[in-house]
Specification:
This protein has 290 residues and is an alpha/beta fold. The protein has two domains: 175 residues, 3-Layer(aba) Sandwich (Rossmann fold); 108 residues, 6-phosphogluconate dehydrogenase C-terminal fold (Orthogonal Bundle). It contains 13 helices and eight strands. The longest helix has 32 residues. The relative contact order is 0.10.
Length: 290
């Protein structure tokens, strides 16, 4: 059976109908046999069904997971870790388990401990919004996004190919990385920027204690550089605490870079400061064109 046929005939259970899970449901519904959304609150059943992102919604995680051909865990990282241990063994033989958590080392380690009949692979779509929840979900969220896949030592080629096809079907670009490398890279491009944005906002808060007019003069530069500071704190706490060492290393390197720029400014080394800033600006421009 081809990867396309596997997806078309699959029943897919998505655990967690927030931004990521519901957006995935929108893009998969109609392209597979059935999409079932697993929710925690009774009122979320009717809300999820009314949104149109699934064929069915249920509070019964055990029944949905046991019946599914593909199970997607779209919840916060530490919740995913609990769900892997609690529900992972319930998958039927040959079913695929994939997660969408933002850190991968701990999750892939937990997946390695699952029974042999579970075909597991780690995943992380590199997209999202500051807003969370079902209301923020939308079709096409994953279009043109990089979707990292972290195969385990036990992940067979067929499992990887099926999940890569699913990723391409929703318009994303699969990128295979090992879990440790993934966590080091996202610490640099996602987790550190969040903390840097929070630090920036905190600095402006202290300025505002003496002169609240600072909020009135803030414009697009502050808006763009501080945007991610408004992200969901619960989700970010899970990310930071499960990628602590990589984030700490990224902070150390960032502090050294900022200290270097500070030294050049303090010592009025204008040519050296200009050269450093031009190199940084060029790197940013090249990334935008990639």
């Amino acid at each position: 059976m081809s990867e396309s046929e596997t997806l078309q005939q699959a029943e897919i259970a998505i655990v967690g109908m927030g931004l990521m899970g519901a957006s995935l449901g929108y893009d998969l519904r109609g392209s597979c046999r059935r999409v079932v959304g697993v929710v925690r609150r009774p009122e979320a059943v009717s809300e999820t069904l009314a949104s149109g992102c699934v064929d069915d919604a249920t509070l019964d995680a055990v029944a949905a997971i046991s019946a599914a051909d593909i199970v997607v865990l779209a919840t916060p990282v530490r919740t995913i870790l609990r769900q892997i241990a609690q529900w992972g063994p319930l998958l039927k033989p040959g079913a695929i388990l994939v997660d969408m958590g933002s850190t991968k080392t701990a999750i892939c380690r937990a997946m390695e401990a699952l029974p042999e009949h579970v075909r597991a692979i780690g995943g992380h779509p590199m997209c999202g919004k500051e807003q969370a929840g079902l209301a923020a979900a939308e079709p096409g969220l994953y279009r043109n996004a990089t979707f990292v896949l972290c195969p385990l030592a036990r992940t067979d080629d067929e499992t990887l190919q099926v999940v890569q096809h699913l990723v391409r079907h929703i318009g994303a670009r699969p990128l295979v990385l090992d879990p440790e490398r993934h966590d080091r890279l996202v610490a640099a491009i996602s987790h550190l920027p969040y903390l840097a944005a929070c630090s920036l906002v905190h600095h402006v808060m202290t300025v505002a204690e003496d002169d609240p007019t600072v909020w009135d003069v803030a414009a697009s530069g502050f808006r763009d550089s501080s945007r991610v500071a408004a992200s969901d704190v619960r989700m970010l706490m899970d990310i930071l605490m499960t990628n602590r060492q990589a984030v700490l290393a990224a902070i150390d390197n960032y502090e050294r870079s900022l200290a270097h720029l500070r030294t050049l400014l303090e010592q009025e080394q204008e040519p050296e400061l200009r050269d450093s800033l031009e190199q940084i600006a060029q790197a940013r421009r090249l990334w935008r064109r990639a």
